[in-house]
Design brief:
- The chain is of the alpha+beta class and 314 residues long.
- The chain has 2 domains: 8-161 and 280-313, Triger factor/SurA peptide-binding fold (Orthogonal Bundle), CATH 1.10.4030; 176-274, Chitinase A, domain 3, CATH 3.10.50.
- Helices cover 55% and strands 14% of the residues.
- The chain has helices at 8-19, 53-66, 74-97, 104-122, 127-137, 141-161, 167-176, 194-205, 210-217, 240-248, 277-308; strands at 29-31, 42-46, 49-52, 182-191, 229-233, 258-260, 263-274, 311-313.
- Strand 2 and strand 3 form a beta hairpin.
- Pfam families: Rotamase_3, SurA_N_3.
Length: 314
């Protein structure tokens, strides 16, 4: 079964880390005072505005919550300032000019999904640990909602920058990546030498037992005790030579042995099902659109940052 690699939750959350941090520190003047600034102290200036210590502090706390293993240094704080100016100030202006908006219901829904994502990925599935960290940092759902909303606005604004992907390109992607949309059930036996693989193939063609031969000869720990069976798997997850034979070998035939980096395989394809283009077109379109966005955003952010003349004083 084909599954999207870029879920909406991850797209929104990665919008900041994958795009904003493309902008390097070299383009941002930084000074360190050594003393912790008070809440109203200006810690950064840019063409058109300033950032105060309290505004930076909130963003730092969100970073601590969502990435608890990260050590917050002044260099990281400088990146966070850049991120804040770019997303909450400069891009916000462009989003407003483009008439981009997101309903509060969508923000609330995405916030729930994002919190679950953070709980699973950063807190070992412990909601209580996540809630405790939020309380420790004195953060509220409203603070996180503001962060999530910025990501959703960016996601929507980026969509206004991309060109419509022609149907022909969508179909071409489908045809060139059929492994992503195919599930296969195979039996195989993995051994170290070609002569042994040829011997096993002959025995199987003469009615030999997959269960017996796999248990006796196979060096694949993932399948040797199941008669060499891999059921309803995506060839996209396999090494190229194994995937190629799984996609092309006739069904129900004991194929000739072939080599992969693990050794020599004897394979029988039991079933193979490819989802039709119509069922995966929406996912393909989303993936191709996202690829366009990922190419367009870094240059835009670099341009905004260079014109902003951000100066940081921590």
């Amino acid at each position: 079964m084909y599954s999207k690699k870029n879920s909406r939750v991850k797209r929104v959350l990665l919008a900041f880390t994958s795009a904003a941090f493309v902008v390097t520190l070299a383009g941002c003047g930084t000074q360190t005072s050594g003393a912790a600034p008070s809440g109203s102290t200006v810690v950064a200036t840019y063409n058109g505005g300033t950032v105060t210590a309290s505004q930076l502090d909130k963003q730092v706390k969100i970073e601590e919550l969502t990435n608890p293993k990260l050590s917050i240094t002044n260099a990281i704080k400088t990146q966070i300032v850049q991120q804040y100016v770019l997303y909450f100030r400069l891009l916000a202006q462009k989003e407003k000019q483009a008439g981009v908006s997101v309903p509060q219901s969508q923000v609330a829904q995405q916030l729930l999904a994002a919190k679950q994502y953070w709980i699973q990925s950063q807190y070992g599935g412990s909601a209580s640990a996540f809630d405790s960290k939020m309380q420790q940092l004195n953060l509220t759902d409203a603070d996180l909602a503001e962060f999530i909303k910025a990501g959703l606005l960016l996601d929507k604004y980026a969509g206004t920058l991309v060109k419509t992907v022609p149907l022909s390109e969508q179909q071409q992607y489908y045809n060139q990546n059929l492994e992503q949309f195919t599930t296969v059930t195979v039996r195989h036996i993995l051994v170290k030498s070609l002569p042994l693989a040829q011997k096993i193939a002959t025995e199987l063609r003469n009615g030999g037992s997959w269960d017996k031969l796999a248990k006796e000869y196979s060096i694949d720990p993932g399948s040797k005790n199941d008669g060499g069976l891999y059921q309803n798997q995506s060839p996209a997850n396999w090494v190229p030579s194994f995937a190629k034979h799984a996609m092309t070998q006739p069904i129900g035939v004991i194929g000739d042995p072939f080599k992969s980096r693990f050794g020599y395989h004897v394979m029988e394809v039991i079933s193979r099902k490819t989802e039709p283009f119509s069922q995966v077109q929406a996912s393909i379109l989303q993936q191709l659109t996202t690829q366009q966005e990922q190419k367009l955003l870094p240059p835009l952010l670099t341009e905004l940052q260079s014109k902003a003349n951000i100066k940081v004083n921590l």
